[in-house]
Design a protein that fits this description.
The complex is a heterodimer of chains A (405) and B (234).
Chain A lengths: L7 H9 L14 H10 L4 E3 L5 E5 L5 E5 L3 E4 L2 H6 L1 H13 L4 E2 L9 H7 L4 H18 L2 E4 L2 H16 L1 H14 L4 E3 L5 H7 L1 H6 L9 E5 L2 H4 L22 H6 L3 E2 L15 H4 L1 H19 L4 E4 L2 H9 L1 H5 L9 E3 H8 L18 H6 L4 H16 L8 H4 L7
Parallel strand pairs in A: 1-7, 4-5, 4-6, 8-9, 8-10, 10-11
Antiparallel strand pairs in A: 2-3
Helix pairs in contact in A: 4-17, 6-7, 6-8
Chain B lengths: L2 H4 L13 H12 L4 H4 L8 H5 L1 H5 L4 H9 L3 H11 L18 H14 L3 H6 L4 H10 L18 H15 L18 H13 L2 H8 L1 H16 L3
Helix pairs in contact in B: 2-7, 2-8, 6-8, 10-14, 13-14
Classes of the chains: A alpha/beta (405), B mainly alpha (234).
The complex binds iron/sulfur cluster (2 copies).
One iron/sulfur cluster binds next to helix 5 and helix 8 of chain B.
Chain lengths: 405, 234
């Protein structure tokens, strides 16, 4: 019996090896093949990923095409409503790289936040909200890039339901017919952080802010890699392929020291319903299970994540905890904001850091950014708006990096 | 806490007065959802889902008990979960690392839908204070908007909310993204046609009936606005 046991040293050795998954052994069939089959039977249209795209590896070793150009920005209501620098940074990056994109007004949110919070909807309605947005993107010829982690996770789950349940497809088609829209599903559901991920070396080439003295903790977003896990990007060079590579790979490409902490798998505490009407849970979880653990184990200069709810929760939950002498005070940024900042985006015109509540000033100071000067510039913008000399900021005002090479 | 109150097999007596056929009917409604077979394959009772679950840490809540009660069709326990537990779930789906392939968070979603559809009192309580969000999502297609960030609603977010509230109009104009600039009652500017399509979806899928169960007054208000908008369509 005992000679059959694997020695501990060998186990350790095996664990140290990067995971190289075999797509043949993936637990589920490749949904894209099922989609193409449905298309061949005339059931739906599959919108192809346009060229140019980059192929990345996902959790079970399959490849996924991430489009670079011709993007239809499926915005996030939580980002646009409460953290607008998140969206602004994504679009600023697109503009810096000369990407051809559409920022649509023919778009609703996925309404998934409400669904996960209150369940005041149903499967068919949720499918239709998704399919209406996908049809709107398809009509323009541009490819949907999903900004919200929740929309991304929700759409992946809905896509599975659509593929596996003919009755749901029939119900969806009936209403789409009424709206005069085709049933279209994109070949890949792509999160903006995957676009940032595949652009990371190009972003690093244009980096003007040295970030090598910065330590960051990463919070991977639950709805990015836990719901329909096989679609998330994994890379044997990042955490040995045992965790998703998005965000971390970008930070490493920018020279940032990514520090580990033991509760990385925990959610942020958002809870959908809780963040709005039961925040005692949200605050406690965010502080006790995330921020304090990061602080105690890694003492980071910032935490970086890639979803709406995570940025909101981790950032806004820290204020009340200060009153209880909890160990808080870690600024929270989205990966798009970090990428834009590295390329010299204005901290207020682009990153819109004044919408964040945990103090970001020490981070900017450590990066050698004179935030007072840039805040004064932004205050001049606000004053011009107040005086009616300007109706608002434009890309022309925001395009210019604060530093050039 | 005694064994009798935590054990999923022995604790099924807290709603003894509720007729069995009602519990059974609600259970069958959950079970008949087309997603149900994708969310439950039995349960090893390994507890992996519990170790990953944020709500299990802070509430008397267990995804394992949910999976197990449903797999055993223990309708007494099911009913307790429906009445007491489902609104504690954070819907993070950390529990989908279940080695059996279960999705306990998904089961919670299905149970919540049934609770809402039947206007159960607990569902209404859980959604108290939530009506303004439903109003926004149904009418604007956005969950949140800048004008919802008010100090009396987010006092725990500190002085930042007050500062934001004072400056909202100017700050909102100082965003270079065309679809966001100067929009305060929604997250971005949406076409009227898009919203009409959204309203059609809500009506055609029975979603408005769900809202009626949660809040009759809100339902009437929404229907009035939506119908007016749909009638005014060019
Ligand atoms: S989805 Fe619900 S049950 Fe599952 S881990 Fe998250 S909080 Fe727990
Ligand atoms: S992880 Fe799955 S099998 Fe294990 S207790 Fe939870 S539901 Fe049951």
């Amino acid at each position: 019996m005992s000679e059959k046991l694997i020695p501990l040293t060998e186990l350790r050795e095996r664990k140290a090896q990067p995971v190289k998954p075999n797509p043949e052994e993936a637990p589920h069939p490749d949904l894209r093949e099922e989609l193409f089959e449905l298309e061949a039977h005339g059931e739906l249209i599959v919108q192809r990923v346009p060229e140019p795209y980059v192929e990345v590896t996902t959790k079970f070793g399959r490849t996924k095409k991430v489009p670079i150009d011709h993007l239809w920005h499926h915005k996030s209501c939580g980002q646009c409503g409460h953290i607008p620098g998140y969206t602004t940074s994504i679009l600023w990056l697109n503009r810096q790289f000369g990407i051809d994109y559409i920022d649509p007004t023919d778009q609703t949110s996925c309404t998934g936040w409400n669904y996960y919070a209150s369940a005041t909807s149903n499967a068919v309605a949720q499918l239709l909200v998704m399919c209406r947005n996908f049809a709107a993107a398809y009509e323009t010829g541009y490819y949907p890039l999903i900004h919200c982690g929740t929309s991304y996770g929700h759409y992946k789950e809905l896509r599975e339901q659509l593929v596996h349940h003919k009755d749901l497809r029939d119900q969806v088609r009936r209403v789409l017919d009424k709206l005069g829209k085709p049933l279209v599903v994109p070949e890949e559901i792509v999160h903006y952080s995957e676009w940032v991920h595949v652009m990371r070396h190009r972003i690093a080439e244009r980096q003007v802010i040295d970030m090598r003295n910065i330590t960051a903790c990463v919070h991977p977003a639950c709805h990015y890699y836990k719901i329909v896990a096989e679609d998330a990007i994994y890379d044997p060079d990042i955490y040995g392929g045992q965790r998703t590579a998005t965000v971390t790979a970008l930070l490493q490409a920018l020279g940032i020291n990514v520090a580990d902490y033991s509760t990385w798998f925990d959610c942020c505490g958002f809870g959908f319903r809780h963040i709005l009407v039961q925040r005692d849970f949200t605050r406690s979880f965010a502080v006790l299970r995330k921020i304090e653990v990061m602080k105690d184990e890694a003492n980071p200069d910032m935490t970086v994540t890639h979803d709406t709810g995570c940025v909101t929760t981790l950032d806004k939950s820290q204020f009340a905890a200060k009153a209880h002498q909890r160990r808080v005070g870690v600024p929270v940024l989205a990966d798009s904001q970090v990428a834009a900042l590295a390329m010299g985006a204005h901290p207020f015109r682009v990153l819109q850091l004044h919408w964040h509540s945990t103090d970001w000033r020490p981070l900017l100071e450590k990066l050698g950014i004179d935030w007072q000067r840039h805040w004064a510039e932004f205050e001049d913008d606000l004053a011009a708006i107040e005086r009616g000399e300007k109706s608002g900021l434009t890309w022309e005002d925001a395009e210019q990096p604060i530093l050039t090479r | 806490m005694s064994v009798a109150t935590w054990s999923p097999t022995k604790a099924g007596h807290r709603y003894a007065e509720v007729p069995e056929e009602i519990k059974r009917q609600l259970f069958e409604e959950v079970k008949s959802d087309p997603r149900y077979p994708d969310f439950l394959y039995g349960c090893y009772e390994c507890g992996i889902c519990v170790s990953a679950c944020p709500s299990a840490r802070f509430y008397d809540f267990s995804p394992r008990v949910i999976a197990q009660a449903l797999a055993r069709e223990d309708i007494d326990r099911f009913y307790e979960i429906l009445m007491e537990d489902i609104w504690n779930c954070a819907q993070c789906f950390s529990c989908v690392r279940c080695p059996r392939g279960n999705n306990p968070g998904g089961l919670v979603t299905l149970m919540r839908e049934v609770a809402v559809r039947h206007g159960l009192e607990q569902a209404q309580q859980a959604l108290q204070g939530y009506s303004r969000v439903i109003y926004k999502i149904m009418l604007k297609g956005n969950q949140v908007s800048p004008d919802m960030l008010q100090p009396d609603f987010f006092p725990d977010w500190g002085p930042w909310v007050r500062e934001f509230s004072r400056n909202m109009t100017a700050w909102r104009k100082a965003i270079p993204v065309d679809t966001l600039r100067n929009v305060t009652d929604a997250a971005w500017r949406t076409d009227d046609k898009t919203l009409r399509e959204l309203y059609t979806i809500w009506f055609e899928t029975g979603n408005m009936e769900v809202i009626r169960e949660v809040d009759e007054g809100l339902y009437e208000l929404l229907v009035e606005i939506m119908e007016e908008e749909l009638e005014a369509a060019p």
